[in-house]
TrEMBL record:
Listed CDD domains: SIS_GlmS_GlmD_1 (cd05008), SIS_GlmS_GlmD_2 (cd05009)
Enzyme's top EC category: transferase
Gene: glmS_1
Source domain of life: Bacteria
GO terms under biological process: carbohydrate derivative metabolic process
GO molecular function, one term: glutamine-fructose-6-phosphate transaminase (isomerizing) activity
Keywords noted in UniProt: Aminotransferase, Repeat, Transferase
Organism expressing this protein natively: Oerskovia enterophila
Protein name: Glutamine--fructose-6-phosphate aminotransferase
InterPro entries xrefs: GlmS/AgaS_SIS (IPR035466), GlmS/FrlB_SIS (IPR035490), SIS_dom (IPR001347), SIS_dom_sf (IPR046348)
Length: 298
């Protein structure tokens, strides 16, 4: 049994999600409102969570929602609300963007550290210290931020958290760990979560990992799949896709569940793969908990 910080943090997600749902109810007035035109920004993991939320909000018909990497936000475009996700509250690109938007557009920051600059950089703030992490690899803060936002959309978080209680105990099959190339595929909300799953595999275990929209996989990326590959499907099933993947020799992994739950399995996979290779999943090479740039000019 792993004793890494990230393993403990992954296991804590069901309770953290329930706390995020309670916080969403308390913060309802500052979360995006139905019909608003919303932009959501982040860097790295937070950007992929932004992608997932944007797709889910539009799927539910609650308004135009665009996701951007913090450095790529189109400052000339107008939104009713700009939401920034930053675990540390110190990410250079996010702080710079909030400064640029100050007094021009309504902003909301979702942060983990209440003492950070990010906690005071936006018009509104939702602080989630209960979801903050010791590990460099981000897991529960990301899913807690998504849960907070999904709760604001009316999704059933209690059912999600209850299902997660079983998922966090999933033992990664040896057949999956025996593969050396990993591809993550999703549709809708699951596209962003597939991107995040791929990032976790690269960060934690230095694996060859890629992610694509599921329908786009056959437009080129399928050529990398063979007997060394595992292809993990998140979210809704795509008719005929499993059969197409299996013809390459790749191992197909899919669960009939909410894509956020499958992301948790992907987190467990990334940790197990790291430990199998003798790596420390808490401290990926070349990374720190917060990326602070000396020159923040955009």
């Amino acid at each position: 049994m792993s004793t890494s910080h990230v393993s403990v943090e992954i296991a804590s997600q069901p309770q953290v999600w329930r706390e995020a749902a309670r916080l969403a109810a308390e913060s309802a007035a500052v979360l995006p409102q139905p019909g608003e035109r919303v932009a959501i920004v982040g860097c790295g993991t937070s950007w992929f969570i932004a992608q997932a939320y944007a797709a889910r909000r539009e799927e539910l018909g609650q308004g135009v929602t665009d996701a951007f990497a913090g450095s790529e936000y189109p400052v000339g475009r107008e939104y009713d609300r700009v939401v920034a996700i930053t675990r540390s509250g110190t990410t250079t690109e996010i702080l710079h963007l909030l400064e640029v938007l100050d007094g021009k557009q309504r902003t909301l920051a979702i942060v983990g550290d209440p003492t950070s600059p990010g906690a005071g950089a936006a018009d509104d703030v939702v602080v989630m210290p209960f979801a903050d992490e010791q590990s460099v690899v981000q897991t529960r803060f990301a899913t807690a931020a998504l849960t907070l936002l999904r709760a604001g959309l009316g999704d059933d978080i209690e059912a999600l958290a209850t299902a997660a209680e079983e998922v966090v105990g999933w033992e990664v099959p040896e057949a999956v760990l025996a593969r050396t190339q990993f591809t993550f595929l999703g549709r809708g909300m699951a596209v962003g979560l597939a991107n995040e799953a791929g990032l976790k595999m690269r960060e934690a275990s230095l694996a060859w990992a890629e992610a694509y929209p599921a329908m786009d996989y056959r437009h080129g990326p399928i050529s990398i799949s063979d007997e060394t590959s595992a292809v993990i499907l998140l979210g809704a099933e795509v008719p005929g896709l499993v059969e197409d993947i299996e013809r390459t020799g790749a191992l197909v992994v899919r669960f009939d569940e909410d894509a956020q739950l499958t992301l948790v399995r992907c987190q467990l996979l990334s940790v197990a793969n790291a430990e199998r290779k003798g790596l420390d999943p808490d401290a990926p090479r070349h990374l720190t908990r917060s990326i602070i740039l000396e020159d923040s000019a955009s």
